[in-house]
Sequence to fold (361 residues):
Amino acid sequence: MPGIARSLLPVSLSLWASLAMAGDIERGRALMADRTKSLCVLCHSVPGTPAHLQGSLAPDLDGVGARYDAQALAAHITAPERFNPDTIMPAYARAEGLTNVNRAWIGKPVLEPGQIDDIIAYLLTLKDQP
Amino acid sequence: MIRLLLALLLASPALAQRSGYDDASPETRAMQDDDSANPGFLWVRQGEELWSSCASCHGAPASLRGVAARYPAWDATLGRPVTLAQRIARHQGVSLPDDAVLALTALVGLQSRGMPLAVQTSGPMARVVADGDRLFHLRQGQLNLSCANCHDDRAGQRLGGSIIPEGHANGYPQYRLEWQSLGSFSRRLRSCMVGVRAEPYAPGSDQAVAIELYLAQRAGGLKVETPAVRP
Fold:
């Protein structure tokens, strides 16, 4: 599913989008496990993360690869407000329209599009229902 | 009668505020309960040593019982509220270094331990409480979260491994095991703000004071626990 996350990005990134790289499952797994980079496990539980370090604020991601295809996963990660206007999940590719962003992060999204593709590649391997 | 009480409790969260103490582990609570095991008392002792320069006006520290429970308080000269730490930091023309302020704030806070937080919210304070309310509910930072998203709506759930407390500021300065140190309310505010990747409000800024005041009234009469111990 090359470039899925990119296809949902603003036109200003279309040049980058034309580079079209496929996501890497192992990089995605590592990113998911990195609490300070992807932050996913702060809210979600994810297979392979110790239970006492996982959040309980969001659905279990085990089996998510059976529930959604790449396109739907990209939508959830880049535009979660489409599914719940009051969502607490950050829009991972968004860098504008935010309030009082820390100076270290101004103008930057939480994850780069390539990283989102890696995470999607990994999520698609999570086929077992919990 | 019981049903009426239950209905009241459910309808009005102000009746059932839960201190971070109640969410802490038994070990952490035991540490707070025993003054000789509570590391916060190292700072209290330091405050007692510094107290000599306060004693000529204030007598014994115990004469300041109740003071901490009323802060942030309106300062008529400045025309705005000040926090206890600000009041201690700039005093009679003297400016104290941060570590002295922390120690003295712990000592003064301890004098109000067990007393319900009771800040003024009327008159000129009403506007500041409203500011704090707005900021508490403002989504901010790269993660686009408000204080209320976690501390009102998801208290008791887990963020990563940590239980989200209701976020009451009734034990500051407090000893945090994660910090291995006593820390001020400003430091706590900074942690949560940096956590959502927001630019933290500077200590003593209008916004920081407004949030501290809002939290004090939101605590709904929870008792002062200074120096509290938290994970």
Observations:
- The first helix of chain B runs from residue 2 to 11.
